[in-house]
Write a structure and sequence with these properties.
135 residues, two-stranded antiparallel ribbon, 5 helices, 6 strands
Length: 135
């Protein structure tokens, strides 16, 4: 199974959700400030293995490739990052081929939870075309 490697040579997750976020950076000292105080970056969230706790993150937070409850997702990002998130936008689910196949199999085993006829319908319904499968 292929996976990304970071600068230290460590393997990355088999799948991750990518979000564009704007962060507010607050300088604590009265004689120091940031200009601009808002920066934009990409937030990576490791995707749970299919069938493991949290694997339905996409079902609970996305709809047709967009965030379904903006304020809720923004608060989740703030809690995870420990800083103010001014905006958040879902970019993609990036996954290895093996992860994506396992995800589709797991979805197929739980179609009633998605109110769908097959895995392809579920992927389209929740992720739209925002799935990037890497080799």
């Amino acid at each position: 199974m292929a996976s990304d490697t970071d600068a230290d040579g460590d393997s990355g997750p088999d799948a991750e959700y990518l979000f564009k976020v704007q962060l507010y950076l607050d300088a604590e000292a009265p004689d120091v400030w940031l200009d601009p105080a808002i920066t934009e970056t990409t937030m990576h969230k490791a995707a749970a293995e299919p069938g493991e706790d949290g694997w339905m993150f996409f079902r609970d937070n996305l709809w047709r490739g967009e965030i379904n409850n903006y304020d809720h997702t923004r608060r989740l990002a703030e809690e995870a990052l420990g800083m103010e998130v001014r905006s958040i936008e879902f970019r993609e689910l990036r996954a290895s081929e093996a992860y994506y196949e396992a995800l589709q199999d797991e979805i197929g085993d739980h179609l009633d939870a998605f109110k769908a006829d097959d895995a392809a319908e579920v992927v389209k319904k929740y992720l739209g075309s925002r799935v990037h499968v890497r080799e």
